[in-house]
Design goal:
With 206 residues, the protein is mainly α. The chain has helices spanning 2-17, 34-47, 49-62, 72-87, 95-111, 118-137, 145-177, 180-205.
Length: 206
């Protein structure tokens, strides 16, 4: 377990040290067509390890809940609001730090299961979504209407698709996996927490 954690930490350091274009699906170039906007929107949450970890954790936390397929929408819709906030030149200070902190929080919630009601969980997802979306907005500032629209559509599709896919997979596996699923969630949560902690440390040190 310690070797795996160290390997993850080393990977994250190398990713964070890479050029800023690593967080841009189009290699740092501004999307300027219908398709490049869509591909950028689909790719951005996947190539950003912190964003992907959050979405996967959100799905795992939502899966056992009756509203499991609805709750991730709080994050998805708030992320769109975050993009719009960024496009309108409104500053959200500490954005990357709060993104990393949100990843760490969801990891901890998976490792130490504590029942929180759906309203509080949705609020956590929405607040985090605002800052994740603000980070997403950096790669689309100045884009024309068409690529901007398809970028936003791509964000919705990929983020909800991943979270909902986790929920559906959890429920299907729950019929055969039994008690192994909660244990898997705790292990996954530990990995997510490590990702969040490393990104948080790197951003605080920057």
């Amino acid at each position: 377990m310690l070797r795996i954690t160290a390997a993850i930490a080393a990977l994250l350091v190398s990713i964070q040290a890479a050029p800023a274009l690593a967080h841009h699906a189009m290699g740092g170039q501004m999307p300027n067509t219908f398709m490049t906007g869509l591909l950028s929107g689909l790719g951005h949450p996947i190539i950003g390890l912190d964003h992907l970890a959050f979405i996967l954790a959100a799905g795992l936390l939502a899966a056992p809940r009756a509203r499991g397929l609805i709750l991730p929408l709080a994050f998805v819709l708030a992320s769109l609001a975050g993009v719009i906030v960024h496009l309108n030149g409104i500053d959200l200070p500490g954005g990357e730090i709060l993104v990393a902190a949100s990843v760490l929080l969801l990891g901890v919630l998976l490792v130490i299961p504590r029942q929180i009601d759906d309203g509080l969980f949705a609020a956590i997802l929405a607040l985090a979504g605002l800052f994740h979306g603000y980070a997403f907005g950096e790669s689309i500032v100045g884009a024309e209407t068409t690529p901007l629209g398809t970028y936003l559509a791509g964000l919705v599709i990929v983020q909800y698709g991943i979270a909902a896919g986790v929920v559906v997979a959890w429920r299907k596996l729950g019929k055969t996996a039994g008690d192994r699923l909660p244990r898997f969630s705790r292990y996954a949560g530990a990995g997510v927490a490590v990702i969040g902690a490393v990104f948080l440390a790197l951003n605080l040190a920057a």
